[in-house]
Amino acid sequence: MDKIRLEILGLSSSQSQSGSFALVLGESSGNRRLPIIIGMFEAQAIAIEIERITPNRPMTHDLFKSFAHNFKFEVNEVLISDLKEGVFFAKLICSNAHQTVEIDSRPSDAIAIGIRFGVPIFTYEAVLSEAGIILTDESNDEERGVLEEKEGQSTSQSAAGDELKNFTTEKLQDLLKDALNKEDYEQAAKIRDEMNKRN
Question: Are residues 172 and 80 in the same domain?
């Protein structure tokens, strides 16, 4: 079966399920979107890697990467392989010098690991045609605006982000260190964004 490459387009709070997040994947060479509902922990693991935040202690997905490297295994790709009764299934395609193996995974974990290895994400046409959302050029522009707005809300446009503008750079550095110590990566991202605006 031919595989279709996907890209991560956005991550936002789920409107339908409290405490969950919507991970939006988009077809690289098309206009279909594949939204997947994931848990808070997995959303955080994906977000801190996308935002390039380094936690003080390794998270589970960082541990997997370290474990794989030490045993000379590489992750080659993430494959969202199936959809059964509304539940997505995924595989990590891994290899070493002697063999290639497929490891079953939840899509959220597979993607959190995959972005740490910098590997592509794929799915099959059957999955995308069943669960994908087709966007016109107009709705594509709207979606881009919504995703940018949601990303902005999760960082500098929130009330906390507005308050950060009043702090000195030295104070922001202290707050960033404190947020990382508390493993509050959402707040750390907001502080980092405010610091980046000033540079």
Answer: no
